[in-house]
Amino acid sequence: MMDNLAIQAAEASVHAGYPNCGGLLLVELDGPAAEVEHLIDEVSQICTQCGAWEIRVAQSDAERALVWKGRKAAFAAMGRISPNYIVQDGVIPAQRSPRFSAKSNA
Fold first, then answer.
1. Contact (Cβ atoms closer than 8 angstroms) between residue 59 and residue 40
2. Residues facing 2 on adjacent strands
3. Contact (Cβ atoms closer than 8 angstroms) between residue 43 and residue 29
4. What residue spans of the chain are helical by DSSP H?
């Protein structure tokens, strides 16, 4: 997730093409192509139901890399804007994340 300040800072640094919005959620899916295609549909539906007004899917490895480059650069970019800005990051490794169904959590 990135808030507007992080989006603007990353854009100024990397020019990843993020939308100018209040916040964004980056999602990366992994697995066999058929499974990923199904998951893209599920994630898109969940995001739309939760109020997302735009959903983008990277169309190439280069586009995906640029999106993540911007996200990874956000921390350093925030330091240039405000040396007192506190950032936190959390990642759940895929092998450790519990499997769940969007249907069971609805």
1. no
2. 24
3. yes
4. 4-14, 33-49, 61-81
